[in-house]
Amino acid sequence: MTQLSDRVGETRRSDAAARDDVKAPQRTVAPREKVAAGELVDIAMTVNGTDVTVSVPARMHLADVLREHLGLTGTHLGCEHGVCGMCTVLVDGDAARACLLFAVQCEGAEIVTVEGLGAPDDQHPLQQAFSAHHGLQCGFCTPGMLMSSYDLLANGPQGTKVDPADLPEEMSGVICRCTGYRGILDAVADVAAEHPEGLPGPRNCAARTLVGRGGGHSTATPGEEAAASAVAGPALPQEVRMPGGAPSATVEVTSALSAPVEKVWAVLDDFDQLARCLPGAELVEVLADDRYRGRAKIALGPVKLSFEGLAQVIERDPADHRMRVLAQGADTGGSATQADIRLRAEAAPGGGTVLKADAALFLSGRIAQFGRALAGDVSRRLFEQFGEAVDQTATTGTAPDVSAGPSPVKIAMGAALDAIKRGAARARVRIQEAIRTRRAR
Ligand code: FES
Ligand code: FES
């Protein structure tokens, strides 16, 4: 048996001078059985308000778990020696260097990363101030600067009443390679002055919402809860859960189908037929409460992912031909995806159907490296192929064979085409702006 009772926060304030007298938070972690070097350990913690359980080697540090297993790549790694401060996150409310913490030390801890500080459309005052004061150049140090300054203003001895003259020393624990310190310090001083009563808390931390049978609240036992909340690793959830915060990507696809709306709805309303129309998907088991267990595979160039997961129809309106499906899956490589999908079939003039698919996608792990634009492009291609398959099934009564999944070449070409279109649209806007500016002179 080993006893882990370690300091989990190396720096509460980020200044190098404070390291000597730092009052690091103390956490006592329940004893664990000794594990072999390559053996995986289950660790349950709360990250940005969401309960997660990861299965990782005991020697893996928190920053790697956040980045590689949870897809939270906002936590940067510079030195991995506790020197540069890039990896600063909050552990149980205090700043800590995630490269100096083993993830197993964080069992039961509440972690907040820069993603939890604010959302793109609801930024924390610190994020707004960094932008207003040009407090970043390449941006590599920005997550560390933000989390460190958050800790300083929220937990420092003077809080937001910190003397601006002390900021250079207080903030010296995070190193900016671009040396853009002036804007950073101005931003922190501004936020401190604007919030004399205390710094507002993180804005993008939310518990997952349990949907379906739970009616919005978890009914699972703690053990089931842990299994259901896993977002990394291949463990299959019992309920579909959606994370809080902004999705990784959103897509809207409208397809014109030749089949009449009633026949299209008949395909959508039959989950077995619907699954046959999803490229690469396979229905494995029909469960109670409109829940379905299945597999899906996707290949993009050399990246091949195979998901096992759960889908749940949470709204089905035959009169309006609309339905809403939540899906959640994970692959053995640590990728996880969740999707909130709305399908609607509308009668089109001439007897055909307009099929609309809207999806909000939440990606983590290796799949998150696709990036927002590419994930959106790939999903768009999938829904386009889905529309074609639904049309064929509704027209002929037989689903085409899409079990092999979407063609990687077709996806890549489609994605490239979309990227070219986006680039051309951006160039058009820039040219129009330049013309407007010239005319205004
Ligand atoms: S990466 Fe953690 S302190 Fe440098
Ligand atoms: S802005 Fe580039 S490292 Fe700080």
UniProtKB/TrEMBL annotation:
PROSITE patterns given in the database record: 2FE2S_FER_1, 2FE2S_FER_2
Domain 2Fe-2S ferredoxin-type: 41-117
Organism: Pseudonocardia acidicola
Keyword annotations from UniProtKB, A to Z: 2Fe-2S, Iron, Iron-sulfur, Metal-binding, Oxidoreductase
Record-given protein name: 2Fe-2S iron-sulfur cluster binding domain-containing protein
Comp. bias intervals (Basic and acidic residues): 7-30
Region entry Disordered, spans: 1-30
Domain of life: Bacteria
Keyword Metal-binding: yes
CDD domains: fer2, SRPBCC_5
Keyword Zinc: no
